[in-house]
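Hi Q.,

Before the meeting this afternoon, I wanted you to have the flavin-adenine dinucleotide prediction in hand. No need to reply - just skim if you have a minute. The sequence and ligand are here:
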Amino acid sequence: MNSFLVLASLASSAFSSSLVGLGQGSINATSTTAVSTVDLETGARCACSKLAISYSSLVIYPGSANYTSQATSYWDIRADLDPACIFLPTSAEQVADAVGLFATCGAQFAVRGGGHMNYPGSNNINGGVLLAFDNMKGYRVNNDTIDVAPGMTWYDVYSALDPYGRAAIGGRLKTIGVPGLTLIGGVSYFINKYGFAMDNVVNYDVVLGNGTQVAANATSNPDLFWALKGGANNFGIVTKFTLKTYSMPHISTTIQEFNETAVYDFIKASCDWVVADSDSSVAAGSVLTITYNATTGSVSPSLLGVQEGISNPPSKFVNFTAIPGVYKVNNVTTSKQWAENLDSPKQMFRVTFGHHSMFPDSDVLYSMYQTWKAAVNQIADVQGLYPTFVINISPASAVRVAKTNGIGNVWGLVEEPTIWWQLSTGWDKAEDDLRVEAWVRQLVEHLHGINKRNGLARDFIYMGDGGDWQDPFAGFPGENVQRMREIRERYDPLGTFTRLNWGGFKLGN
Ligand SMILES: Cc1cc2nc3c(=O)[nH]c(=O)nc-3n(C[C@H](O)[C@H](O)[C@H](O)COP(=O)(O)OP(=O)(O)OC[C@H]3O[C@@H](n4cnc5c(N)ncnc54)[C@H](O)[C@@H]3O)c2cc1C
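Predicted structure with the ligand bound:
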């Protein structure tokens, strides 16, 4: 395949040289004095006005035409906030310039990729500067990799690769952003064979906290390269991801829905699947959910199953196919076509997550489901209540990829199958926020407490499934956390991403 270049509209300069030394900001790269702390308003006024001098058409203020649509471009309605200004860079140089200004002004800022991290302040900011990547949607398809700018969604990536019959290891729904998912780990349909999204990144172009740009890969800044594999937004802003791609002209898919009588068998099939899926000869994965409508009393287990190749129905899901269901559709298609119908639109609802991980045990997982269902009835009066019990699976083979690729990742997981169970709860009204959030938190910790006592609980918390009150770093090996802190000190001695950058899961001191 010949390399070619496709650059969308404004993003023509999204990819610059991979290592360009100092950015345009007048920051001294060798300075190690921590960023100044000024009040929110003063810092934002300084950064917004300086950005507007250089890039007036890329800075928007409250009251201007696009402000509201930008400030509300989030999946979780709770994440809508009121930034003092919004900067929409078109290139890595502009990102570097902005970060330099944030540091000199002491301006607090937030960063948004696909806008799917679902809690207020994780990707938006009240009174500070929001840097959003909507103008950086460039990509370049290479022989066995793709360069991706941080404004891309996974659907954009699958669409770009579709003409070449290739696939990248990324999100399972259409509109999730590439940057957030890749920086926290990344569960795809193909983890059993290819590991997590982060395990498939061969280079990151990064803007550091002093406005310099560096490349992080196996030979250049390898410590930063490792830290970015699961370390989230603690080290810099990534302006380009280079992802491995794999030949996958077709995928075989199954959509299956069941009713309440199938719940136990569905849970058993899920537990059997995570253990059996350690056979990584065929890449396959799933979205497994049980929704409960407390008003109608209906319970709906469902499976979205995907497998590489054309075997129809997909052979990896025989345990689910054997369960009598209300709806079963199999298809042979492409990653692009499959993702097309799996939208998770912006402003969907107010929604909170909570999760822990455990060794698979169908009887225990079933009793957790029963406890959850009974607890949902306690808040059944909440308007728009949309409770879902999610079963994410992490087979041992997914963990093995990082153990054998010579790079690793910050998770340091034990090579064993685990279930990452998650409670996802949506609702309509702000007045119910505290009630629902407290309900989720209490229930999640109650269930995890039982698993701790029966020896099934594991410490790992996935940032993509956890709630804002959870601390994923506490579940990583202590030596990895210590190493991440040293790397953060080396690459961000000013503390730009600790002191000024709002949101996400921050590595404490
Ligand atoms: C409906 C839904 C489905 C999901 N499905 C999956 C799934 O299939 N697999 C999976 O693994 N996870 C999944 N997740 C979790 C998802 O991966 C995370 O929410 C992820 O953070 C989303 O990335 P984003 O770019 O859309 O998010 P954003 O909210 O834009 O960003 C997330 C965090 O990353 C920071 N950030 C964004 N861009 C950059 C950058 N360029 N450099 C540095 N920091 C940056 C933000 O400041 C923020 O803190 C899902 C979430 C939702 C809501």
